[in-house]
C-alpha cells in the first residue's frame, strides 16, 4: 500500500504575522517559512504506518512555489520515500488543491491519503474533506488515533466534547489533529540522504483541472486590538473586582 | 436568497451553535433548517420554534444517526437544488460535513465567518486570528461555516416553522460509526456555552496539580474548565479542554487565565471574552496585554486564596 501525504509551506508557527499597511495581505517577505505543523503530524503518521509494515511507500506532495521543495525535502528527511512538487506561484484554494490531489491519487492509487486538518495560514480546514468528496471515499477527520486492519482503517476522531471512533473502507482520507503523534526531528544523515531521494516537478496544467480561484480577498486587516486593563495588587483586590462583575 | 442551515444536535436536543448560524443566515435571506438524524423528532420541534425559521427539513433515517459526513453530505447536496446558501455551525460536525458539501457542489467554502458584509461578501479570520480577511465569492451557491461566538444567538422561542420530512440517498456504505466517548464533565457547564471559564496553562505542572488548583475554583464559580495548548500537549487534560485557534473558540462573560502566558494561538481562542482575568507570576507575560484585570502572583498561593475568598 502507498500513502500519499500532501504538505504545505506556510509561515513558521513561531512567527507573528504582520498585516500589510495597504490591506492587500500578510507580509511574507523575509519571513521564516516551515512545513504546516498539522502536515508534519501527517508525515509522521505515514512513516509510522510504513515502519509498522503496513505500507510500502510514502509519497509527499506539495502544491506551491519552487521553494516548497524545501518543505518536501523536510518530509523526505523525516522518512518519506519520494516527492512530487506541483509548482505554481499562484495561490491555489483548497478546492483547487483537492482537484489536483485527486488527479495524483488516481495515478498513484494510495490506500490512504493523510493530510493536516488545516493550514495555519488560511485556516480553511477543507482540503481533506473536499478530496474525500471528489474521490467519493470516506474521511476520518481530526484524527487522534489511526489503526489499519485489513482493508479498513479505524479512526478515533477529536470531536466537540470528546472522541468518536469510525471505521472506514480503504482507500480513505485521514486528517490529523494535534494529539495523533509527536513528529520526529530529521537527523543530519537523513537530511543528507533526503537530498538524493527522487523529487518530481509538475505543473498544475499537467492535471487538466480547473483551479481558478472562486474567492476574491478584497481586504486584509488587523483584528481589533484589545486594550490592557489594570493590574491589581493582591487577591483581595481581585476578589473585590470579581464581585463587582457579579461573579460569586 | 434561500438559506439552509445544518442543525447541530445529538438526536435529542438542539446545540446552541445552531442559533448563531441561524442569525448569520437571516442576514442573507429566508432561513430553512436541516435536521439530519435518527429518531430526532424532538430536535425538529425545537428547531421549528427558533425565531425567524421558515421550513425545517427533517431527514430521519438510521443512516444519519451519527451524522457521518459520507452520508449527510449527499443529502445536503440534494437539498441545495432549491437553496442558495448552505450554512453550518463551526462545530466539529459542521467542519466535517460542509467542505464535503462544497466539493459536491463545486463551490469554494468560506470557513468560519465572523460577519456578513453583503450577499456574497464575508469576513473571516486567517493566521490564527492575527488578520481578518474580507472575501467575496464568485460561486453561484454559497457554502459557509459560522463561528459561533461572532453572532448573537437567535431566540429559541417565537418561531413557527413548518416541519417537512425529506429523504436522501441514505447510507453510502463506505463508513460506519463505532463508538463515542464523551468527556465526563459532571455538572460542569460546556466550554462553548459557559458564562465563566477557568483555564489553566503549562505552569500547572502536571495533571494532579491542574486538578487540585483549577477544579475547586471552577466548582466554586460553576465555571467551565479550559486549558492552553501547552497544558494539553503536556498531558494535563484531554484535548477537548483546549482553548485556542486549534481548539475551541470561546467568548464567556468572564475568562480567568491561570498560569497561561498568552501565546498567539491561545489568545485567538478567547480574546472575545467580555472580561479577561489573568493570574501569572511573570509580569511581562503577553496575557497581561489583553487582560482587563491582572494579578502578578504565584498561582500556587493566589489560586487557593482566591477560591477560599470568593
From TrEMBL, chain A:
Organism: Blastomonas marina
Pfam family, one: ETF
Similarity field: Belongs to the ETF beta-subunit/FixA family.
Highest taxon above the source species: Bacteria
PROSITE patterns associated with the record: ETF_BETA (PS01065)
InterPro entries, alphabetized: ET-Flavoprotein_bsu_CS, ETF_a/b_N, ETF_b, ETF_beta_N, Rossmann-like_a/b/a_fold
Keyword terms, alphabetized: Electron transport, Transport
Bilayer-spanning residue ranges: none
Protein name listed in UniProt: Electron transfer flavoprotein subunit beta
Domain (Electron transfer flavoprotein alpha/beta-subunit N-terminal) ranges: 23-211
TrEMBL record, chain B:
Family matches, as InterPro entries: DHS-like_NAD/FAD-binding_dom, ETF_a/b_N, ETF_a/FixB, ETF_alpha_N, ETF_asu_C, Rossmann-like_a/b/a_fold
Record flagged with keyword Electron transport: yes
Pfam families reported for this sequence: ETF, ETF_alpha
SMART domains: ETF
CDD domains: ETF_alpha
Keywords noted in UniProt: Electron transport, Transport
Domain Electron transfer flavoprotein alpha/beta-subunit N-terminal, chain residue ranges per copy: 3-181
Entry's family note: Belongs to the ETF alpha-subunit/FixB family.
Name listed for the protein in its UniProt record: Electron transfer flavoprotein subunit beta
UniProt lineage: Bacteria, Pseudomonadati, Pseudomonadota, Alphaproteobacteria, Sphingomonadales
Amino acid at each position: 500500500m502507498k500513502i500519499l501525504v500532501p504538505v504545505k509551506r506556510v509561515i513558521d508557527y513561531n512567527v507573528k504575522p504582520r498585516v500589510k499597511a495597504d490591506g492587500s495581505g500578510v507580509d511574507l517577505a523575509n519571513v521564516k517559512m516551515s512545513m504546516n505543523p498539522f502536515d508534519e503530524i501527517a508525515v509522521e503518521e505515514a512513516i509510522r504506518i510504513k515502519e509498522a509494515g503496513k505500507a510500502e511507500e510514502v509519497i509527499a506532495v506539495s502544491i506551491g512555489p519552487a521553494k516548497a521543495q524545501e518543505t518536501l525535502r523536510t518530509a523526505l528527511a523525516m522518512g518519506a520515500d519520494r516527492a512530487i512538487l506541483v509548482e505554481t506561484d499562484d495561490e491555489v484554494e483548497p478546492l483547487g488543491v483537492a482537484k489536483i490531489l485527486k488527479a495524483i491519487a488516481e495515478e498513484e492509487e494510495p490506500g490512504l491519503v493523510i493530510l493536516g486538518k488545516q493550514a495555519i495560514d488560511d485556516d480553511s480546514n477543507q482540503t481533506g474533506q473536499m478530496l474525500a468528496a471528489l474521490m467519493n471515499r470516506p474521511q476520518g477527520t481530526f484524527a487522534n488515533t489511526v489503526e489499519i486492519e485489513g482493508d479498513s482503517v479505524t479512526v478515533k476522531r477529536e470531536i466537540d466534547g470528546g472522541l468518536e471512533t469510525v471505521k472506514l473502507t480503504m482507500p480513505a482520507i485521514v486528517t490529523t489533529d494535534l494529539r495523533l503523534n509527536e513528529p520526529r526531528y530529521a537527523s543530519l544523515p537523513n537530511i543528507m540522504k533526503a537530498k538524493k531521494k527522487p523529487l518530481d516537478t509538475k505543473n498544475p496544467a499537467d492535471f487538466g483541472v480547473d483551479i481558478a480561484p472562486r474567492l476574491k480577498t478584497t481586504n486584509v486587516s488587523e483584528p481589533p486590538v484589545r486594550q490592557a486593563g489594570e493590574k491589581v495588587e493582591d487577591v483581595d483586590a481581585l476578589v473585590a473586582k470579581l464581585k463587582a462583575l457579579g461573579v460569586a | 436568497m434561500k438559506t439552509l442551515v445544518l442543525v447541530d444536535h445529538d438526536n435529542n436536543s438542539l446545540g446552541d451553535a445552531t442559533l448563531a448560524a441561524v442569525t448569520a443566515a437571516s442576514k442573507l435571506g429566508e432561513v430553512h433548517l436541516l435536521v439530519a438524524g435518527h429518531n430526532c423528532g424532538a430536535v425538529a420541534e425545537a428547531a421549528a420554534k427558533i425565531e425567524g425559521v421558515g421550513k425545517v427539513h427533517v431527514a430521519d433515517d438510521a443512516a444519519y444517526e451519527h451524522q457521518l459526513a459520507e452520508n449527510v453530505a449527499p443529502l445536503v447536496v440534494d437539498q441545495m437544488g432549491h437553496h442558495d446558501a448552505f450554512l453550518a455551525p463551526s462545530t466539529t460536525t459542521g467542519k466535517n460535513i460542509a467542505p464535503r458539501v462544497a466539493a459536491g457542489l463545486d463551490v469554494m467554502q468560506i470557513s468560519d465567518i465572523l460577519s456578513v458584509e453583503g450577499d456574497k461578501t464575508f469576513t473571516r479570520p486567517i493566521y490564527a486570528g492575527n488578520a481578518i480577511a474580507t472575501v467575496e465569492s464568485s460561486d453561484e451557491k454559497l457554502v459557509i461555516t459560522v463561528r459561533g461566538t461572532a453572532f448573537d444567538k437567535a431566540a429559541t422561542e417565537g418561531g413557527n416553522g413548518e416541519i417537512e420530512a425529506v429523504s436522501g440517498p441514505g447510507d453510502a456504505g463506505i463508513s460506519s460509526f463505532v463508538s463515542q466517548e464523551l468527556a465526563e464533565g459532571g455538572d460542569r457547564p460546556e466550554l462553548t456555552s459557559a458564562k465563566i471559564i477557568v483555564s489553566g496553562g503549562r505552569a500547572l505542572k502536571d495533571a494532579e496539580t491542574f486538578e487540585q488548583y483549577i477544579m475547586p475554583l471552577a466548582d466554586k464559580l460553576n465555571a467551565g474548565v479550559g486549558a492552553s495548548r501547552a497544558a494539553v500537549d503536556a498531558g494535563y487534560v484531554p484535548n477537548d479542554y483546549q482553548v485556542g485557534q486549534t481548539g475551541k473558540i470561546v467568548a464567556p462573560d468572564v475568562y480567568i487565565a491561570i498560569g497561561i502566558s498568552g501565546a498567539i494561538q491561545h489568545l485567538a481562542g478567547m480574546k472575545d471574552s467580555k472580561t479577561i482575568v489573568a493570574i501569572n507570576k511573570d509580569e511581562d507575560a503577553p496575557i497581561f496585554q489583553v487582560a482587563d484585570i491582572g494579578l502578578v502572583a504565584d498561582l500556587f498561593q493566589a489560586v487557593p486564596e482566591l477560591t477560599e475568598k470568593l
